[in-house]
Amino acid sequence: MPSPVIVVGMGELGGVFARGLLRAGHPVFPVTRRVPLALHSVDPELVLVTVGEAELDTLLAEVPDKYRDRLALVQNELLPRDWRAHGLSTPTVAVVWFEKKPARPVNVVSPTVLFGRGAPLLEAALAALDIPARRAPDEGALLTALVEKNLYILTTNLAGLRTGGTVAELWRDQRELAETVAGEVLDIQEFLTEQKLVREPLMRAFDEAVAADPQHRCTGRSAPVRLARAIGHADRGGLAVPTLRELAQEHQA
Fold it and tell me: 93, 120, 177, 184: least surrounded by Cβ within 10 Å?
């Protein structure tokens, strides 16, 4: 019998992975944040963490030792610093490029990028739902994939606070704003990764993501929180990010 998987956080994203795992033959044990992981006696192959970005740090601090080498993370805005802060070696990571809204089917933008010991299991789970995925060959490729996703999510969300509309409209009609916000987002990513990033291929990947799903809405409920978090990172890094600060003032007004 295939080994079980614990899924922590049963929102829309967790539900997609749970269905895929079940179709692939794995027993799934759903866990909400109200139930501490330490209380579970399951011996899982993987502990898939699908909680929101704001909850991740607290959850990682609470992970029992027996699960620390079995974690799989799927959050947006994720970077290696997030798991290294808790003394974790590279966990399984899924850079998710599909969206799931309540009462709507899964919308795929690009193949999800997988890395780590649990990548084959997650690849099989997504394949069971006809969701495309590919594996990152090494940690450098994983970092690139994470930054590409962060660039897309943050640029469209934060610029979208001013423009609204779709990502195609932002990129076509407000290119200067989008590129300025993207530059400030990459300044923050460089601070957080402590690496100089080659920006041209990252911007090409952004352009490809826009073209893959041009009608994607720029901004959702999480955009103001993302903006506040980005400015907090900028403050800690001594970064000016003037356009992001203008957007924050506009939103507060």
Answer: 120
